[in-house]
Amino acid sequence: MTGSRRFARLALLRLQVELLTFFRTPDQLFFTFLLPVLFVVVFSTIFSGDIQGPPGEPAVPFPQYFVPGMIASGIVSVTFANLATGIAIEQHEGLLRRLAATPLPRSAYFAGKVALAFVTSVLIVIVILAIGVAAFGVSLPREPAKWAVFAAVLFLGAGSCSLLGIAYTRIIRSAGSAPAVVQPPYLVLQFISGVFLQYSVVPGWLQAVASVFPLKWMAQALRSVFLPDWIGRDDYGSWQTGTALLVLAAWFAGAAVLARLSFRWSRGQG
């Protein structure tokens, strides 16, 4: 078996282990899938009115605006938050040291983790879209170009946030502190990136902070797929879809470098 075929086989086997572990952990399943669904149901029910447009433009139901932002948030949750927490726990509990003594290449371990993040990202997108369409009448785009943007955001967003999660483990000092270190910045970014409310109502200085991170650009690009242009002008000045994809691509490359430089297989290393 060639080196590439062996790596692919081991990465696939590691993905199977990760999937089995993930789906056999009820509390992780709940917070990964059911919590975003609860957010979609609760917020779409509470804010059930329409966003009024300029004269001549049809109003937009709030769920149509909210669901794309929740998809972006769900992707960050199953990539950055889950990977940072899970890998940090495995680091500090000694699993990675034990894996280092096996024939499994370290690259195959990370490939399995990132592949798990992509699989769960696709699943969370399907679940949120299904709830939005079935329960709240969210309209799906019909243009192939918009679905191409959707796929690009999914790939770049999931990839960059997965690598950021791996890099972020460097500042987690114990297994018990992992959720407390990971969740606060993620929750704050949800609010200042306009996930739960219209981005235009976020104060300008918080918008400037949000624009540094991927979540804001993911939500903006996904909204460009589901919403009319006048929403983009009101909230962002314009959708800036090309800029959003470039920012996500830059984060993908930068996060890969950060993960390579900052990650430690064992926290006993310097």
In terms of topology, how is this protein built?
Elements lengths: L2 H21 L2 H21 L3 E2 L8 E2 H31 L2 H6 L5 H31 L7 H25 L9 H15 L11 H7 L3 H13 L2 H8 L4 H22 L8
Our Rg estimate from Cα atoms comes to 19 Å
The average pLDDT value, as a whole number, equals 90
Largest sheet: 2 strands, antiparallel
Head-to-tail CA distance between termini? 36 Å
- Strand percentage lies at under 5%
Q: Residue ranges: pLDDT <50 for 5 or more in a row?
A: none
Widest β-sheet, arrangement of strands: 1-2
Per DSSP E runs of 2 or more residues, the count of β-strands stands at: 2
Helical amount = over 70%
Supply the number of helical segments: 11
Task: Output the keywords.
single chain; 270 residues; mainly alpha; two-stranded antiparallel ribbon; 1% strand; elongated
Characterization of the model:
The chain is mainly alpha-helical. It has one domain. Helix content is about 75%, strand content about 0%. It contains eleven helices and two strands. It has helices spanning about 5-25, 25-45, 60-90, 95-100, 105-135, 145-170, 180-190, 205-210, 215-225, 230-235, 240-260, and strands spanning about 50, 60. A two-stranded antiparallel sheet has the order 1-2. Strand 1 (about 50) and strand 2 form a beta hairpin. Helix 2 runs antiparallel to helix 3 (about 60-90). It is elongated and about 65 Å long. The mean pLDDT is about 90.
